Amino acid sequence: MLEHSLNSRQVRGFANSPPNHAPRFRAGPKYFTNLQYAYICQAFSYTLCTRMPSPLTLGWLSKNMHEDISPHLTREDRLCLLLCRGQLTLDEQARAREFLTDPLQWSLLLERAYTHDVYPLVYRNLRQLDFSAVPQMVQTELKRAYLVNALRNQLLAEDLARLLDLLSDAGIPVIPLKGVALAESLYGDQDARVCTDIDLLVPPAHYHRAIEVILAAGYPDVYRDAFFRKLALRHGRHYSFQRDAAGRSTLVELHWRLWQFSSRDNDIVEDLWAEARPRHSCRAPAYTFSPDWEFLYLALHAADHCWQGLKWLVDLHQLCTCRPPDWRRLTQKAEQFELDLVLGQTLAACSLFLGTPLPADYNSASLPTNVRFFPITPFPAGGFETALSPMALLRHRWDKLRCAANIVLFPKPADQAFLHLPTAVSFLYYPLRVLRLIGKRL
After folding, report:
1. Is CATH 3.40.50.720 the right assignment for the domain spanning 2-441?
2. Which pTM was predicted?
């Protein structure tokens, strides 16, 4: 059973699902018909409905970061939360050894580690504990998964270094997002994180040229025809490429926005690039976020994914413990760009599940309800179940409306995968999109 669990996951990341592109456009009452407004209102109502009710939603677990959730978790869950950290303190090592002395359902612990992409850290910390009381079969499986991930990350690092060199030669500033670059800078080990693709951020003025460079490097885009390519270029937050070679697929996502539907996005992008600093990544020239923007970006990314993946919270926990931010400056910047709710809720989740150290005077934030979180299996990435979640983070009505209209009205590559239409009738993807979403809700 343990080997089957590994085999079904050790290739995670080589096969990638179609990207979820998010158009951006002006919004206001005069831009929509009554029928379109009805569809948008349905999208809004979805966010207010209970999605797959469970006693383990964040709203049920805790209303603020100080409540103890341990009674609702199994011993395997609590051990997983201990072992998924970058480094264990002496106290955490002692607690982990105490858990290991009792009988454990190792298949359940491995399931949690694989589902939330934290198995490299679990392996590293168990190795630090000399695999105390860990069955040999579990040791073997975790080591095999760790080595498969290390190989995948090495290949991604080589691809990343090549792209960074090419973009630098073209005079294009670029910040590697997440992935092996974050693993290297945050954990000192590019094998410590599960990485599935390459994400690059470039200034908006350079993204057309960056697309040309990446295409010329042998990374074709994922769009089957000009209709979806045009939608991605005009309205997308990122543009996706996929290179299939040597029996593996490498997905590259080029970003030029950070918080697409927010009316503050242009100001955010301008400020983060003003503070960006040159720094080599994977031995190639690149730029990196300032400490404040690194923290805010990771918090926004975790919130954008509904705090479902434990991996994102672990990254922030590692930042708080190893490179604590200037909390006053960070809070001021979050408030300046309307990211204070994002920051507060993300830190609440970190503190609740990982005991992340926060300053004594830091205000607690209420966690959103009806969110699937550890130990529940997350919704699939890009699924409709989480597509509307970013709306709750937006402050202004028209920002929320743009987000809802984007999801409901603009076709996505998944619509083409559902039904491939001739190029001459590509416009039919617009009503098809709406009908598919209605069908999912019936």
Report:
1. no
2. 0.82
